Amino acid sequence: METPIADFLRKYDADRVTRFHMPGHKGKPFLGCEHLDITEVKGADALYEADGIIAQSETNAAAMFGSRRTCYSTEGSSQCIRAMLYLALTNRPAGTAPMIVAARNVHKAFVYAAALLDFEVVWLWPEESRSLCACRVSPESLEKTLALLPKPPAAVYLTSPDYLGGVAEIAALAEICHRHGTRLAVDNAHGAYLRFLTPSRHPLDLGADLCCDSAHKTLPVLTGGAYLHISEHAPAALAEHAKAALALFGSTSPSYLTMASLDLCNSYLAADYSARLSETAKRMEQVRDRLRASGWQVEDSDPLRLTLRAPASTTGTALADRLRKNGVECEYADGDFLVLMATPENDLSEFDRLLTALGENQIPYTPSVPLPLARGKCACSIREALFAPHETIPARQALGRICGAPTVSCPPAIPIAVSGEVITAEALSLFDQYGVETVDVLK
Fold it and tell me: What is the spatial distance between Cα 60 and Cα 168, in angstroms, rounded to a whole number?
């Protein structure tokens, strides 16, 4: 497959052009990649008005993902989430309300989008919670929620896979959305690779109308590289306005290095990636089996993730420290879970090193205790709360106060209390569980 962006950068460097243009490094090596880092010079196209090499590369990506249109982001899925919600609201089906029904485990980028776009949110809560990261939405609960609304929402919004690797029942949930006259938008930040499994498990192939992928999370793309996908069965207007939506939330100086890595990824995916992915998925299943046999509790997850529940008297963060001492760095750890992510770029020796570092688990497991659900009453809109004067106070003093900006580390960047909600005793318990020491509240 052609790689027009990367080819242009290499030629521009090889031509030894004298650079009286941005960036200020002028192609001279500081990190070593500057010779390929340029701005929108003649022939380089422009990300948000693409009609040249960037447009060609994005067309190649759309073919790989089977979408009506795929657009690049150099500012991660956070930019794509905002653009996706803007598209859902400004092109909503007739008879729908300017509202989004969303599973509660949203990334905080969703909350910021709600403030910027000023839409109402109806939250989908799990029947039981074992982690802030997870929020299983059953087809029955979605059906009930949509049936009780006076009007269908502009869209239903899900995060799948979630940070622990939980995968939503996309096909069943999409069918319910479409039957109720609304659309399904999926934050698939952790699942770009799902398209290349056999069969595909990508949200677009399971009925989602809009979808964003963080390419850099599971594919060989530089940090910040992401996709906004419009489904083949979605209205043409969504595809037509996708670039304008991204431009609304994006920098006018997108990284050409990141775009080049997205461009090169098309060639990588078109080669033997599916076969290598299949082998890695099998290897991950073997790793899970070995760990189960060694006394570890392995959670169900997407194929490239390993999620371990911490046994009694220890924590996921302690397990992460144990790995670190043995030269292994995890993706995420909290009091209850340890999460690791693999790709075909992890070789056999690295899997062996991981297994050796974990070793045998001799500590027994006790039944997990469900976490409280922090259902705070909405005192004002998300927009009103985020744009009001704030103050930061100790979390233990926040009971009854109105949440200002969501306070949570990244990862997982999932709010415990959402802006505009009254902070409850359950929220205080979760602040303590996840090590949140201070909270931003309205003055």
Answer: 28
Q: In whole angstroms, what is the distance from residue 346 CA to residue 223 CA?
A: 18
Decide: 288 and 74 in contact? Cβ < 8 Å: no
The CATH number of 382-442, from 3.90.105.10, 3.40.50.10190, 3.10.450.50, 2.70.40.10, is 3.90.105.10
Which tokens in the block code for residue 375?
Answer: 């259902």
- In the sheet that holds 210-213, the strands lie side by side as 69-73, 226-230, 210-213, 183-187, 153-159, 97-103, 120-124
Mean pLDDT of all residues in 405-415: 82
| DSSP codes, 48-75 | GG--SHHHHHHHHHHHHHT-SEEEEESS
Q: pTM for the full model?
A: 0.96
Find the helix or strand (DSSP H, E) in which 339 lies. strand 337-341
pLDDT in tens, 382-402: 999 999 999 999 999 999 999
Please tell me the distance from the alpha carbon of residue 437 to that of residue 443, in angstroms, as a whole number. 18
The CATH architecture that domain 4-270 belongs to is 3-Layer(aba) Sandwich (3.40)
